Amino acid sequence: MTQIIKVGNKKIGPGCPVFVIAEIGCNFEGDLDRAKEMIRAASAAGADAVKFQTFIPEKLTTRTAPKFWDIEGCPGETQYDEFIQMPKLTLEKYKELKKTAEDARIIFFSTPEDEDSADLLESIGVPLYKISSMNITHLPLLRHVAKKGKPIIISTGGSTIKEIKEAVTAIVSEGNRQIVILHCITNYPAKVENVNLNMIIDIKNNFGDYPIGYSDHTKMEDSLSIIIGAAALGANSIEKHFTFDKNRPGYDHEISADYQDLKEITNRLRILERGLGISCKKPTESEKKIIPLARRSIVAKTDIPKGTRISKDMLSIKRPGTGIEPKFILDVVGKKALTHIKEDEILVWNMLNLTGKEDI
What we know:
Layout: E1 5-7, E2 10-12, E3 19-25, H1 32-44, E4 49-54, H2 57-60, H3 79-85, H4 91-103, E5 107-112, H5 115-123, E6 129-131, H6 139-146, E7 152-155, H7 161-172, E8 179-184, H8 192-195, H9 199-206, E9 212-216, H10 220-232, E10 237-241, H11 259-276, H12 285-288, H13 291-294, E11 297-300, E12 315-318, H14 329-332
Parallel strand pairs: 3-4, 3-10, 4-5, 6-7, 7-8, 8-9, 9-10
Antiparallel strand pairs: 1-2, 11-12
Helix pairs in contact: 1-4, 6-7, 10-11
């Protein structure tokens, strides 16, 4: 059975509202006041959590590592060129942002890219951690984070089932089973034809003990349909990059939702949740009063005098369904009428001789 992961006053798992993460990342562009404004906006839009990125460029990439993303306006020729220019937060600034999130009643956390970054986040008391797709094989980092005993959300872009199993095993080996696994495609931006939402089903089949989610990198014109589809397939958590201006160059603005987009995403997810309902197929309470009126019964096509042996040509099938069901028509044929049955009258069982005795 899939476990339910608790994060503060929120729950992640089957039967729980979809846990929506607004990935601010570095989209605040180093402006602390803007970061605070974005946290408050994400909360107002209905997100459950905001997420940042915590890294030390010198520990993340070599100076010559080529880029693997294609976002217009990103600075520099290499990964290092870009990361060295990205905004970095001090411990005190992280504390300020976490306090802003608490005041806005939204969960604050981040993605640590190295052990020191994880320790910094632990020092301010984040309630959970995110492991990026690119670190799924960085088992030493996974074990280090797992030891902190907090829930861990893992993105799986570019991963095989075997690699995901190795990552989960590394976390569990440290006594931590609080894991959420996100399907993700490591393209920036991701084309719709590359999203492959059906992989969510494969992940669910292989990791049934853990909640499953989806991290979206498509452009916003496609994102809403994709995100709703992911949730319909069983994603218990959705992560979407968040920005104050989708048209700004660089960073993750191009693949991000703005306030109105995020509000639309959360509203549509809540509608979907109501629509998904229960999984056991049976009549709903709202249908029960309709069924007898909408279904059909066996009806007399003509007057049937008492004592008449009923033939099929004396019968028709009409609404409402308050009499003998059509599936029993062959059981009615050949029976004798115990009473006079009028044309267009609905047949019920006590009108018929069911004993086979001729004396009626």
